[in-house]
Each structure stands twice: as structure tokens, then as C-alpha cells.
Amino acid sequence: MKIGIVCYPTFGGSGVVATELGKALASNGHQVHFITYNQPARLDFFSANLFYHEVAVSQYPLFDYPPYETVLASKLVDVVRFEQLDILHVHYAIPHASVAYLAKQILKAQGIQIPIVTTLHGTDITLVGKDASFSPVVSFSINHSDGVTAVSTNLKEQTLQSFDVKKEIKVIPNFIDFTRFHNKNRTYFKKAIAPEHERIIVHTSNFRKVKRTNDVVEIFEKINKQIPSKLLMVGDGPERRKAEELSRELGIADSVRFLGKQEAIEEILSVSDLFIMPSESESFGLAALEAMACGVPVISTNAGGLPELNLDGKSGFLSDIGAVEDMAAKAIKILKNEEVLNTFKAEALKRAHHFDLKNILPHYENFYEEVIANTK
After folding, report:
1. Considering the entire predicted model, what is its pTM?
2. Which residues is 277 bridged to in the sheet?
């Protein structure tokens, strides 16, 4: 198949999933065309089956905000026509699904049929999409997609509750590529971070309010009182400064490292003992899955799709949003005993294998074929 993929080219979950999916499809013999305004963050190799089409937005004095949607629609028309694509897969409802619909209508007027698959990732539904100014467009775009997927059952249910959606939504969970994410022997790195054999705790996110990064610092402070440990904060965003200031106020700054954005996150996860995700909203929890694939158990909230990924008492523990004391106590339960820690590590890895890319990729391929067949 010739597949067009539209996504945000960022470190966020939707961009990562779209990019990794495209790379896997290309490796499986499909011709994949990425169409976006920057090269996706994880599009780190090229093959005979992988293409990137930049959406170049010009600046005009007339516009306070460049008309990206219009330019993207024109680019989609161009790529579909000249690359003779079989299907368009757009990630994120806003604005990609509505733009794809516009491109489809333009192509239809030219005698070209292009089926559209829309994947819902989370924030497009749980936060942005609920804005009354976006809601009619989101509902329309979903209903007029030829196929719709969601990354968790919870997200599917939220979509049906929040919007007037008549379209069937197929749940295809996020996935992990074990050729990249697996535990690697990085003893020298671990010794550099924890020279006294301290436990290493990690958190990765975009440091937005929804990630509750201050909770991570507070949880760690309680752990550190009982167990010698280090905290690695990976990523960047608007809440980073507050988390840094809190670590100083609590007197634990010497035990906390803010590492910023990191490409080789698997290197950091390979030396970690525990992953903390206290988010108030997660459609799936891709960062937690990456940790689990490296054999790192997870302390998370029970928000959104996290219970579908993190099995309470097996791959880690679940707690209510904001339950800092409970999360700290559960973290200590895992970390204080080597045998218990190793059991949780093994269970985290076992759970991650349920989401192996090799298992999930065929679901997308079969869905593409089904959608293409139904639109002929």
C-alpha cells in the first residue's frame, strides 16, 4: 500500500506513535509518505519506502496567524495525486481530520477517491476537543472519516460521551518497538548517577500541568527520606521551573537531575528502578510503556487509559490523582526489597510484551485494507 501519514512532528505521544508506525510500515514493504511542517522527531532514518513532504507555510502581513490548515490541505491534494496514495492516515482530530476531509472533497471533484483513517490520541478529545468552539468540527470530522481508531478503550468511551459521534471507533492500542526499547547494560552510566548504589527513579513528560510534575518531586522527597535514591526528570515544558524550585525548597535538589529533552530515552530507562507517572489525564501512557519495555515498574494514577496498561500489583501500582502519600508508600514497597523489585521488573517487562509492535502492526494493516475495500 501507499500510505500518507499526517501528524504533529513533535516529542508528544501522537507524533511518536505516528512516526514509529510509519517506520514499521515502511520496513514491512509499504510505501509511507509523511506530510507535516517539520521532519518528525523520531524520523531518524530513511529507506526506499519512506518519504517526507514538508508543508511550507509562508508569512503574509494580512494574517496574524499563517493559514496552516489551508496550506496542509493543498499539500495533501498534491501528494495524493502525484504519489497515487491508497489511503491517508491522520493522527489527532484537530486540525488534521477536518483538513483531510477538505482535501478529500477537492480530490473527489477531480475524480480521485482517497479514504481517510483518523486516530484519536487523547488531548484532541479530552482537552482541546471539548472546547465549545471546536466541538462541531471535531464531531463532523470523526463522523466523516472512513475509519476511526482510538489508542485505548477509555479514550473511545470519552469520545462517545463528549461528542455526537455515530462512527464506529476501533481500539488499537499504542505499541512498543523492542528492537529499540529494551534493557541495556549501562553499568558505567548507572555508577555515574548513583555512585553509592542509590535507587534511580525517573519521570519523562512535556512538563505541562496535566502531568503534575510537582507531585513527582513530592513523591520522591518522601521516598528519599527512607531509601537512598536519585530522581531523573526528563523533558521540558512550562512546569519545569516550578518543579526545580520545589526540589530546592524541599532540600533535595542535590538528588534531582533535570535532563531536558533526550533522544535516547531508552539509555536512561535502562539504568532506572522505578517510573513515576502521576498524570491527571493520560489516554494511554506511552512513556510508561517505554519504561516497562526496559523492565522498569510504574507508579501511576488510575486516570484515563493507564489501568489498561499498568496492572495494579503486577507491573506497578495505581493510585488516585494527587494521592502523593499513597504513591510514595507504594514506591517504597517496591524499592525497599531487592527480590520484590526484581519481581515487579519482570512483570513490567512481561506486560509490555502485550503491546509489542509486531502484535499491533497487523491490526493497522488489516484496518487499512478494510477501509480501502469499503470505500471502493
Report:
1. 0.90
2. 300
